[in-house]
Amino acid sequence: MPSDCATRKLGMTFHRFPRDYGLRRKWEVALRREGFAADDEWVLCSDHFKPDEFDRAGQVCLLRPGVIPSVLNFPAHLGRVRARKTTTKQP
């Protein structure tokens, strides 16, 4: 893994999972990892967020409040969940 200085030069930052349980749960669900539960040490890199979801006004790059990771590449079998059509037979 590259050093912290190397990743900053590449424009990559790391962001801890939220402490707020509701928002943390949304992050966990977004990752689509069955049985996954993050703790206070888990982080996601900036590649998993859209550029406009960052507050870069200060010296530290922060995520805007309430942001959920949305830039995720999943294998085909974990692709977008679709609602199933149900049909009923008529007598």
Automatic annotation (TrEMBL):
Q: Which SUPFAM superfamilies match?
A: Glucocorticoid receptor-like (DNA-binding domain) (SSF57716)
Q: What's a single GO MF annotation on this record?
A: zinc ion binding
Organism's domain of life?
Eukaryota
Pfam families assigned: THAP
Task: Tell me the keywords, alphabetical order.
Answer: DNA-binding, Metal-binding, Zinc, Zinc-finger
**Gene3D superfamilies, from UniProt?**
THAP domain
Task: List the InterPro entries hit by this protein, alphabetically.
Answer: THAP2, THAP_Znf, THAP_Znf_sf
Record-annotated THAP-type domain positions: 1-72
Identify the PANTHER family for this entry.
THAP DOMAIN-CONTAINING PROTEIN 2
Q: What is this protein called?
A: THAP-type domain-containing protein
Q: What is the lineage of its organism?
A: Eukaryota, Metazoa, Chordata, Craniata, Vertebrata
